[in-house]
Amino acid sequence: MADAADHLAYSRTNNAMIDEDHAHCAELLMRCRMAEESALLGLLDELAAHFEAHFAREEALMQETGFPPMPIHKTEHRRVLAWTANIADAARDGDIARLRTFLTVDAPRWFADHAATMDMATANWAAARQR
Ligand SMILES: [Fe+2]
Ligand SMILES: [Fe+2]
Predict the structure, then answer these.
(1) Which of 5, 22, 120, 124 is deepest in the core (most CB within 10 A)?
(2) For residue 61, how far is its CA from the centre of ligand 2 (angstroms)?
(3) Quick check: pTM over 0.90?
(4) 25: CA distance to ligand 2 center in Å?
């Protein structure tokens, strides 16, 4: 078993599509933790592209299953995409400390919290609808 430094803890939702995206997200965030400073901006771009696709898949699932709080979940996704873009702008202006904090502290914390709450609720709703 990996120790705490080697993995990122997050809740499984038992929705195969969501959990696959989350495994990819966790793997990417772990790479950020190990990365040299020169690799961080490229990793942020990779994370932004991942978020776009990951969020779009969850939004399609919410749409298909008629998830009532979809606007709230979708608004949170938009907020995180804007936050990520903001960090990228700051990093391109030289704020690498903020970039590192985002990739190694804030984004992993947000991801674990979001997976356990909005994504879990979405997965539970979809499981009940798709049965
Ligand atoms: Fe998610
Ligand atoms: Fe989500």
Answers:
(1) 22
(2) 11
(3) yes
(4) 12
